[in-house]
Amino acid sequence: MSQAILSLQIANNTQLAQNKIQTVLNLLNEGATVPFIARYRKDQTGGLEDHEIFKIQKEATAIEELVKRKEYVLETIKELKVDNPLLINNIESCWDKKQLEDLFAPYKSKRKTKASVAKENGLEGLAKIIMSQKSDHINIQPFIKNNIKNETDAINGAIDIISEWITEHTYTKNQLRRLFNREGVLKSKIKKGKEQEAQIYKTYFDFEQKATRLPSHRILAILRGTNEGLLSSGISIDKQTAIELLERNFIKSKNQSAEIVKQAIANTYGKNLKPSLEKELLNELKLKADVEAIQVFSKNLEQLLLAAPIGKKNVLSIDPGFKTGCKVVCLNKQGDLLEDTIIYPHPPQKQHSKSIDKVLQLLNKHKIEAIAIGNGTAGRETETFIKSINLAKDIAIYLVNENGASIYSASEIGREEFPNHDITVRGAVSIGRRLMDPLAELVKIEPKSIGVGQYQHDVDQTLLKTELDHVVEKCVNKIGVQLNTASKYLLQYIAGIGPSLAKNIVEYRAKNGQFNSLNELKKVPRLGDKAFEQCAGFLRVQGKQPLDNTGIHPEQYNVVTQIAKQQKLSIGDLIGNKDILSLSNNLNLQEQIGKLTLSDLLNELAKPNIDPRKQEDQLEFSQNITTINDLYDGMILQGQVSNITNFGAFIDLGIKENGLVHISQITNQFINSPNDVLHLNQIVTVKIIQLDLENKRIGLTMKL
After folding, report:
1. By three-state DSSP, how is residue 643 classified?
2. Where is the S1 motif domain (predicted)?
3. What is the radius of gyration, based on Cα positions, of the chain?
4. Which residues are within 8 A (CB) of 22 and not within 5 positions of it... i.e. 6 or more apart?
5. Which residue, of 200, 215, 485, 678, has the greatest Cβ tally within 10 A?
């Protein structure tokens, strides 16, 4: 397939300009990565953003897979010696996967069916006579031979063949598809005897709604309940409407043959067409719901990864617990583990004074500047305990979202980093490091385990991984990393590097000491010119060349040198000099490297390494609210957004149970998604409008 055809098909699917798509495809074929193209090839792509380039890449992969399938279909038809130019032309011009499979259906190698057996018994001629519906009387006698004992056997065999023809009739199947999409209703019912077990699915005990209008979370909930054996569900349409549609296509007269064809239609619809089209529509609904759920997850993950770091500080980190105590670790500014211990400030031990003494000792010994406390079990109680201690005013206390910390603790990465410590120590370290630099720590955890998704275990796992890996890659390259301190887990997400080269970089660093320049990267085994081109702009080195510690790509250093000479300044004096932004209108420079590239270069020179991550305010939860029993209807309180879904946002109220603000209760204005107005960790004021103590559910509104 030519690049022109590929770019045209992608343009049809994405509404992006074909010339921009062609440029992106050329760059991808040359080995360029999505982050590199988005950041350093803006003038070539017309300023396409990261997500648009990623979309082009995904579409190209999908279309190339379709082309391979078309090639297989054409080769199979050629081997079968099918002489049908119209069929060949339809396949070659087909760009829809479903239509391609419909065209191929009659020629697929099939298992033995009733229709194939009937054909072997010589009944295809009878089926053609019946299907033509030209005669009022059918002479069946010539077909009664061998395995066909009587007229009934002959008619039944002919019906089996006609049923297969109807099933494989592309035009009719597309008509029924449209009917299912237009009229299909997704129904669900509780399975008898499962009422108590399925309380979480109470909404769907007797539920029906137009299938194509169902929001993604309802589709995923119904399908999950069905898979768990608690609900029965399916697509329903008016049977008579479907049968009449089929009869309009295949009934040509009012004779005996027509009556037999009607019988074949009824059999075909009930046994073949309805089940296959129902399954097809359910799969489409599932895919659509998966895509929407993954989009929500991706937005949440990006917000979490781009949460502000507190920076290089000595941190005391606590993984709270009651009976098993609170695991305490001390980390230096580089995140290295200095010391670990356990304190028991809570029941049943209640070693309050002893715990205070130990904390104070650690604070002084390691010059602690911040305290991180996991927000899980005993988190609020541990925060209260720490605040009861007479701490220095400059020691900040943070409640840290610990979702995924236990995954890291038991992971191969956790064991590799701390082979001589148990999982409780690793968990506490992860909490502390997450406060210091969320991005650097969260890349060690499988994205779907971080806990900011919606039905993440129900959606297509391959699709989920592709999207979430892209989000992580996007965030890491957006911030950039320090080459001399970054872990291999962080480095592997830098454009052009990957796990193998990241390992080589870290091993080279350990053997040869710190990198003094970006150019030294070329000495790393197997890191060639293309990999260097892709990664260099996203890495930072504090060395002899000041530009190595900026987001300016080495391929642009000569332009910076030229600017420095024109301005009669050293490169060091250019960095941080906002006056050079006036050069954005310099036509010679624009012609040399491009208008968009020049703008980025000057902005980076004026404000090098600006970190877009903003520190969120810390919410002080009320000390009077520690359990759900402290709440009441109509109560107004503050909370923090902990998760966002398509149907609403979950709010951390400082107790074990999160409250839910349904999308209809977020604002008086219409919004498509809670993400339109909310973001993770945002502090919001809410009012309790529904309190279900028995099921521990809290309904909230932000429309005060």
Report:
1. strand
2. 634-703
3. 33
4. 3, 4, 7
5. 678
